[in-house]
TrEMBL record:
Subunit comment: Forms a membrane-associated complex with FtsE.
TM ranges: 21-41, 180-200, 221-249, 280-299
Chief subcellular location: membrane
Example of a GO biological process term: cell division
Identification of the protein by name: Cell division protein FtsX
Native organism: Streptomyces roseochromogenus subsp. oscitans DS 12.976
UniProt topology in membrane: Multi-pass membrane protein
Keywords: Cell cycle, Cell division, Cell membrane, Membrane, Transmembrane, Transmembrane helix
Gene Ontology cellular-component terms listed: plasma membrane
Superkingdom of the organism of origin: Bacteria
Coiled coil: none
InterPro entries the UniProt entry points to: ABC3_permease_C, FtsX, FtsX_actino, FtsX_ECD
Keyword NADP among UniProt keywords: no
UniProt xrefs under Pfam families: FtsX, FtsX_ECD
Length: 305
């Protein structure tokens, strides 16, 4: 097969269906940009889970004298020293516990003032109104229920709170957004495939005389099909290249510069450039294979070779 012939046929096909080719490029670029963005979002959620789940604590809040009238769990009064000693002893004996730290009322008051010093409520609070607590770091954050079942309802314990529950709500929202992006990507992908099929059909119809002559002189099926498949692959590759550019530019201007989220949101451990660069070959490979396969199956039906 002469490469010059194939290249000339590709150029002719792209020029004859310029509008549809442009639509294919745009739809492939958008769908694959969303695909790459969804992969990066999944990596980001996994990175954040690993980072934050490693830092979450389970907090056991102890009863104070002000809780006796307002909380049924503290109906027997403030926690006693014996109860605190027993709680601490039991915590340190549990195999799921990695570290136990105690926060006094004065320390809790100091931390509250540091975080909410400008709140109107802060001026009316006193240290004796704050709750003592034990902060427990677990070897496995998933084992929160072991602590909750062991200490909920125990004398002197007002409540057991798991910070992981707060993070779970955030991650559920992020996963929902990611699934939404995947849904949009799937619809764009279907649109791109339909456009590719229609483009190949129009191109095959406009060159039916040439292909008929090629069949009469004994040209092989692959020889006739190759220019059409190559046209779709070239259009897809251009779209894939644009999708890669969109991911790189988006990462650069949202995280590193422009919005500069890496400095504004220091509590978030953003995915690095290595995560972006590893997605680009997959996007480019998909941008070539997807249109090529779509064109191949379209030609089997609409181009009798």
């Amino acid at each position: 097969m002469r490469a010059q012939f194939v290249l000339s046929e590709i150029g002719v096909g792209l020029r004859r269906n310029l509008t549809m080719t442009f639509a294919v490029i745009v739809s492939v670029a958008l769908s694959l940009a969303l695909f790459g963005g969804s992969l990066l979002m999944s990596d980001q959620v996994s990175t954040m889970k690993g980072y934050w789940y490693d830092k979450v604590n389970v907090s056991i809040f102890l009863c104070n004298k002000h809780d006796a009238d307002s909380d049924v769990n503290c109906a027997k009064g403030a926690v006693t020293q014996d109860q605190k000693n027993q709680i601490q002893h039991d915590l340190r004996a549990m195999p799921v516990v990695e570290k136990v730290s105690y926060e006094s009322q004065d320390e809790a008051y100091k931390h509250y003032k540091e975080q909410f010093g400008n709140s109107p409520l802060a001026s009316s609070l006193t240290p004796d109104q704050m709750q003592e607590s034990y902060r427990i770091k677990l070897k496995d954050p998933q084992k929160y229920q072991v602590i909750a079942s062991a200490f909920n309802g125990r004398p002197g314990v007002q409540s057991v709170q798991d910070q992981k529950g707060i993070l779970d709500n955030l991650f559920q929202l992020l996963n929902l957004m990611n699934r939404g992006a995947l849904g949009v990507m799937a619809m764009m992908l279907i649109v791109a495939l339909l456009l590719i099929v229609n483009t190949v059909r129009v191109s095959a119809f406009s060159r039916r005389r040439e292909t008929g002559i090629m069949r009469l002189v004994g040209a092989s099926g692959f020889y006739i099909q190759a220019p059409f498949i190559a046209e779709a692959a070239v259009a897809g590759l251009i779209g894939g290249g644009l999708a890669c550019v969109a991911l790189v530019v988006g990462r650069y201007f949202t995280i590193d510069h422009g919005m500069d989220l890496s400095h504004k949101l220091t509590l978030i451990n953003f995915v690095g450039w290595d995560a972006v660069l590893t997605k680009l070959p997959l996007i480019l490979a998909t941008s070539v294979l997807m249109p090529s396969l779509a064109a191949f199956f379209a030609l089997r039906k609409y181009l009798k070779v």
